[in-house]
User: Fold this.
Amino acid sequence: LGDTLDNQVGVSSSGFATAAGRPVIRGQSGSRVTVAENGLDTLDASDISPDHAVTVDPLAARRIEVLRGPSTLLYGGNAVGGLVNSLSDLIPTTALRSVSGDLLLGADSASLEKLGAVRLRGGNLGGTGLAPSPGGGSLNWTLGGFSRDASDYRIPGNATLGDPNSATGRLPNSYNRSTGASGGVSWVDRWGVVGLSHTELNATYGIPSEESVFID
Assistant:
């Protein structure tokens, strides 16, 4: 998540290899920056230990918001440095007329990474337009999933600066393998919206040790 936002003004990544990268906003990190999903705090271990991965993968998001300043007061005192909100739209809030979806495929030669993500959305609308028919509401659903598999990434020279006996060509313990699945349903009617969703994330990743890498 941190690498995804790294090019935004005032935002950087804590940078613990490819998997553990928590957003840093204007130099503030840890418990001063809240990471949320659909407005709810993720409450993961990366809040107190930056070498843990954030439990939100960008492949599962439709949009990512970065909030700074007074607008963060709506999310509590822990967002004093800023807030990163991942929006997945798992619970449709408008009636959907047909099935639509998105597909993403990618690869990375440096780490031999292969990734893919798919998202489907649909509904059963009893009328025309984007509003339920007078006789009833609309049942809507979303399904999504992703998979990421990356090996240790390629580096020039040795893993430890000045040590010819250290690993050469690839940085040990920098791999990242993760999968995720999500789904949600909602009922949209003239009186409002009701729905529920479920998300699952499984990740196995490495953290290069302090003895393995030195930056000159």
User: Anything to note?
Assistant: Residues 127-132, 211-216 have pLDDT under 50 and may be disordered.
